[in-house]
Amino acid sequence: AICLDNDFENSVPSDVVLSTVSNLIKKQYAQVKAENIKGHREVNPKTTCPGNQFLSDWKAKLIANLV
Questions:
Q1: Region at 14 (left for phi over 0; alpha for psi -120 to 50; beta for the rest)
Q2: 47: Cβ–Cβ under 8 A, 6 or more apart, which residues?
Q3: Taking Cα atoms as reference points, which of 44, 46, 58, 66 lies closest to residue 6?
Q4: What is the model's pTM?
Q5: How big is the chain by its Cα radius of gyration, in Å?
Q6: Which pLDDT tens digit goes with each residue over 36-50?
């Protein structure tokens, strides 16, 4: 698991943060397929983590940086 320490309830991480997380995934979790990358809310719908814009915005950016 990777945790971003900030309040992304109604905002998105910067491009620098997303690039850094993507690089971490590529280096440390290369065996994980992009379709298996999930936000906490996708696994536990009772939480708001990782925020309202994860599925509609920054998950795609995060995954796009993996290639």
A1: beta
A2: 40, 41
A3: 58
A4: 0.85
A5: 11
A6: 999 999 999 999 999
CA–CA separation, 23 and 48 (whole Å): 25
CB burial of residue 62 (10 Å; 0-12, 13-18, 19+)? buried
Long-range contacts for 3-6 (Cβ within 8 Å, ≥24 apart)? Answer: 4/50
d(CA 16, CA 47) in angstroms, rounded, equals: 25
* 6-58 residue pLDDT tens: 999 999 999 999 999 999 999 999 999 999 999 999 999 999 999 999 999 99
Q: Give the span between the Cα atoms of 45 and 55, in whole angstroms.
A: 12
